[in-house]
Amino acid sequence: MNKILQLNQIRKVYATRDIETVALNNINLSVDKGEFVSVMGPSGCGKSTLLNLMGLLDQPTSGQLLLNDRPTDSHNDKVLSRLRNENVGFIFQSFHLISDLNVLHNTEVPLLYRKGVSGKERRQRAREVLERVGLSSRMKHFPSQLSGGQKQRVAIARALIGRPDILLADEPTGNLDSKMGAEIMDLLKEVNGQGTTIVMVTHDDRLAGQTNRTVRLFDGERVD
Ligand SMILES: Nc1ncnc2c1ncn2[C@@H]1O[C@H](COP(=O)(O)OP(=O)(O)OP(=O)(O)O)[C@@H](O)[C@H]1O
Ligand SMILES: [Mg+2]
Prior knowledge:
alpha/beta
């Protein structure tokens, strides 16, 4: 009941024309509601693959993934997109903001795909989450006019506007200097403290040390 994600015997194989890569093998892992979990391991060990599966951006080759106790393997793309849009927020190392939308409009994007949310409500909720991440004074700025830390704050606001159960963060501080990285980490801890479950990939032991627990991968397998 209190498990938000459950991965049973997950395997992911990428097959290109002449090579098969086993990106994940025999992964068993569950994440409880309210947890802040970090994922560590060397480059190429399968961290991003794991996050993509958790966020329903991709499907495992075999094994089962349950989101809120419900299997996800029988869903078609439309159902998966809706589940993703309603349950999951993503943030990435390289922010993934839309350069010709201002901060307010970037933040509103996930709600454009939500039925039953009016333009007025969208704007109101964008203002609220931007306030939460400390960016009220930058709503009319464009991404190119922001620092790296501020861009990541916009990405966090955009991830939170849909009120997801879980936030998946793939090296969210990877492009930031250590001071800005620490600020983003503080913000993520605050968001977690307010009830959002977080899974974060990081290469930084100090950041991983501030989470509830660390899952370690090596060559596609769990080694912790
Ligand atoms: N779309 C793809 N097609 C084929 N192979 C892929 C694909 N995506 C990832 N891989 C391979 O799967 C393995 C795991 O990749 P993944 O991106 O999950 O690693 P990672 O742990 O996130 O690495 P990094 O720390 O460099 O981001 C790698 O060997 C990679 O080359
Ligand atoms: Mg990666």
